[in-house]
Structure formats: structure tokens, C-alpha cells
Amino acid sequence: MRKLVEKIVEKILAISGAMTTIVIMLVVIFLFKEGFGLFNSPVIEKGYALCVNEVNPVEHIGSAAIKKIYNQHIENWSEIGGLNEKIIPFRYDDVFQHYKEEEFGENYEKLPEKLGEVIAGSPGILAFIPEEYLPKNVKGVKILDGNTINPNDFFLGVEWIPTSTPAPQFGVLPLILGTLWVSLVAILIATPLGMGVAIYLSELAQGKVRDILKPAIELLAGIPSVVYGFFGLVVLVPLVQKTFSLSVGETAFTGSVILAIMALPTIITVAEDAMRSTPRAMREASLALGATHWQTIYKVVIPYAASGISAAVVLGIGRAIGETMVALMVTGNAAIIPKTLFSPVRTIPATIAAELGEAPHGGVHYQALFVLGCVLFLITLVISITAELISKRQHNKGL
Amino acid sequence: MSKKLSQQIAFWIFRILGVFVVGILLWILGFIIYNGIGVISFEFIFDAPRDGMLKGGIFPAIVGTFCLIVGSMIVAFPLGVMSAIYTNEYVRDGKISKFIRMMTNNLGSIPSIIFGLFGMALFVNTMSWGDSILAGSFTLGLLALPLVIRTTEEALRTVPDSLRVGSYALGASKLQTIRYVTLPAAFPNIVTGLILSVGRVSGETAPILFTVAAYFLPKLPSSVFDQVMALPYHLYVISTSGTNLEAARPMAYGTALVLITLVLIINFSASLIRKHFSKKLGGH
Fold first, then answer.
1. ipTM of the complex as predicted
2. Are A222 and B125 a contacting pair at CB < 8 A?
3. What superfamily does domain A48-148 belong to in CATH?
4. Residues A108-131: what's their mean pLDDT?
């Protein structure tokens, strides 16, 4: 009987272990599953289709190219791999300039036919037409129905404008650069600060000072990110605006400063642990050779703890990259490739948080946000694996 | 420059940095307390927001956060503690425990907004629970899971093996050893870890954005399928959206103060428990 109970309990515990693992896999699977459809979705707005003249050899037009065509930045088919023919961008309501109102019939039942005539008659046309009026099976018309978003549009695109018509722009480059930009500057600010405090804590601080500093750092780590965001919004944003006389205070720099404060506890704790693990014998050998305490710190302790310190920095970057609320509240949220520290930027997590509420479930925008989530997930995964590898080196040294 | 002088300079820099970090903390806390303390009143804590959230209180948000804390812990505690017992007591150095540990480590490094995405996709849409306490609790519970597992594992690891071996030597079985020796010895540290994860969960905003949080909902929830307001989300909303941000500032300061106080009390009680029990254990 007792044996049986033992067995049952062990199985239950094993199942909970397995469930944990399954849950983690589910997170990843769902992320990719929801986003996967993006690259099978049409480039242009839902409910519309693109048509060209039959003689036109072009089969695929990227979303960025479509936007440029309708803004008249691309004017010739030869620029996107077609014939040397001027592009005539055409929206379906332009058809009313070609025909009289009564020619479409009472319920506009002849609209597709007339649209077909226009397209067939113009070799350079690029027509943007609602699916219900699509001129199907009309001679001289080619419907570009295989025109789906390709990874180049997404990963190399330089514009993120999900509401743009006729083709929404899902270029992720400004968001990735914005995220890295804010996080790297944050880490540049936090590393020297955090290192200094870590050295102080592990090498210099006496019992009482430690008893104040340690809990203070823990408190700093415990403050919710939305409070940091709020503090940044009401204190730092006006301060940055005034100090650097900018038109808006919501900049990459403002975000970096707050993120740096948030990354400090991680950096300090991990780096201090690494420094404390320096064997006493090594310190004493250095001191015995006549080195001062400071020389011992930077010639013995810091080199010994180097991998632990790097792990601290990498973990700090990871913390900053994934932070949502601060980025959402103080970085200005402009999806442009950042040129200076003082321009507004938009990070990946902030984009997801700001837009997911408006994106209809299952739509292209929704899928694009999930692919963004995958990108963010992969970035943080690489970072956490890097940190783990580095700190493993530190542990091996300890043996 | 002499060795002594450069040492003096370096050490002073480190001391100043130490003071600087404490200064930042005091600045943030002081700022919120100074601006928020005047707003706190009986009405602010126990009343619903009124007049475009410019007046009234934050009671629904406090209740909502409380519901989410309880809900997420119901999800995370049993699962987390049981898998930690399994990996630490049954398969400690095996491949399975290494694998589970690797997975939880990775789960722990996933940004909170990803949990929001996942929670929306699975709980809100696929399971069609809608925006609800249930969906929010599961999302936050998953977020807390790695923390619960890690702290429980650490707590179990601090129990010396001699205790376990002693128990076996007296003829106790594995389960009896866990039940009567290991768990009681690790208990204070497990509780500390659990409280810390409550602290983490109570301040999270990103995971609840699309799974449970309501912009304005003065009514208190009546079932787990209701939406609720939550303190962190409320702070985000009244400080960033609305027609009159300046007029909403006092409410925002008050909310921030309540949120910080809540989180600090939770974290503080965790460290009190740890201190209390470590003294007790040390006294034996």
C-alpha cells in the first residue's frame, strides 16, 4: 500500500514536471503558429486585389514597391523587373473618369467588365481593385493573386505603417534598430555605474553600508516597470526636453536612462557574485607581492571575474530589450530608423503592446505582431544562451 | 601618480557611485511618496473612479489586482512547487531535470510582453475565455512559474543531505522523507520565494494588457470570466491616455504610491520571513 502511494505521488510530481515543460513548448509553438500565416498573406489590404495588363511579365511586387508606386517614387516597370513601360497607378474609383455613370448599369453590375476594359487597354497599368469587382476571366487582364508578403519585405523593410493603403508596410528594421539602440545605450550607461557599485559592495563596503546598499538594490529591482515608466514620463521627459532644448522629451535617450536604472540591480548582483567568488589565496598572493588593494582589484579580481561580469552585462541587455512599459511610455513611439540619441524611437515590445489591441484577430497586422514576438523571443533566447555559456566559464574556473 | 593616490581616487569614485544608486532609489520613492501622499484618503482607496477617472478612487483596480494575484498563484504554486520537488528530489542530476531546468531558465528570460501575446492567442482566443480573470491569471501564472520553480529548487537545495540520509537510515521512505524532513526544513525559503513571485506578478502590466485589464470598469467582478481593472494598468492608462492628462496627475501619483506600497510590503514581508526563520534555524 505504502509503495503504491509512493509510486502515485512520484508519478504526479513527474507529470507536473512534464506539464511545465509542455507549457514552455506551447508558448513557443503558439507564438510561431499565430505568426506563421504572415508570409502567406497578400501584400495588399484585405478584400482587395492587384491587377495588371496581360503583357506585363511582373508576378510579384513587394509592399514597399507598391507604396512607392502609388506615391510616384517608382514610375517605370523596369525599376521592379518589368518592361520599359511607364507605370499607371490606378484605384478602382478612377474608372468613373473613363465612363459615364449610366454605363455601369443599375446596380453597377457592369463595373467589373468596365474595369477589365480599362486594364486590358493600358499596358502599364497597376490596378487596385476590391475583390467583389474583380474582372475575372477577362481577356487581357492578369490578377496578381500569388503576391504574398515575402520575408524580404518584412526583415529588410524600412517602414512600419500597418495602416498604409493600398499595401500596409511591415518593415521590421526600424523596430529592431530602435530596440537595440535604446538597449545598448542603456547598457553603456548602466555598466560603469553597476560595475562601480559591484566593486564597492564586494571589496570595500563594510557590514553596515552593505546592509543599506543590498536592500536598496533589491528594492530598485522590485519597483514595477510601469512605475519606472510613470516616473520617466513626469520627471525625466520634461528634464531631457529642457536640458537639451528639444521639441519633445520622449526620446531614445530618455528611455535608455530609465532602462539603465532598471538594469542596474541585475548587473550589480551578478557582477558582485562573480567578484566575491575570487579565491582568497589569489587576493592574498597579490597583496603579498606588494600590490595595493586597488591594484589587486583591477589586476586580479576583475580579470578573474571577467566572465561573470560579462554575463552580468549580457543579462542586463536582455532585461532592457524585453522591457515593454518603459519603452511604451517614454521613447516617443515613432517607427523610424533612429539617427540620433535624441530622436523618438519605437521598440519591438512597445509596438506589440501599442498595436495588438487594434489588430483584428487573425488578420495580417495581428500575424505581423506575432512574428515580431518571435523575433523578440529569438533575440532574448540568443542573449540568455550567451549569458549562460559565459557564466558556465566562470563556474568552471571555480573548480 | 602614486599607487596610494590612485587607490584613494578609485575608492572615492566607487563610494560616490554607491551613494548615487541609493540616491536614485530615494529620488524615485521620495518623488512618488511626496506627490502621492496627499491623494491617499479613505475615498481614494475604497471608492470607484468617477468623472472620467479624474475623481473618486481606485478600489476596483485594487480588487482586480488582488484577484489576479490569487488566480495566478493558484496556477503557479502547485505546478511550480511540484515540478521543483520532482527535479530536485527525484531526478536531481539526471537528464530530465537538466532539461526541465534549461526550459524553465529560458522561460524565465522571455520578456513579459511575449506572455501577453501567448495568453491572448491561447487563453483569450483559442480557448475563447475572452478578456477575463481566468485568462489573465493563467498568463501571469505562467510568468511566475519559472520564479516559483527556481526559488523552490534553491530552497530544497539548502536542506543538507545529511538530514535526508538520516531520515532514510531511520527507515523512512522517500515520500516520508520529503513530507516530514525536507519540506519542513525548506518551508521558510519556499514561502519567501512564493511571496517574491507574488511581488513580481502584482506589478506586471504587459501580460495583462490583452488578457484581462479593463480601461474603466467600476463594477466589481462577479465571476472568473469577468474583466477587471488592475493597478499597474490603471496607472498606465491614467498617465498616458485621456483628454486631460494634467488633471489626472494626482490620481496617477496616488495609484503609483498604492502600487509601490503594495509591492514593497510584499517584498519586505518576504525578507522578514527569511530573516525570522534563518535566525530560528541558526539557533538550533
1. 0.92
2. no
3. Periplasmic binding protein-like II (3.40.190.10)
4. 83
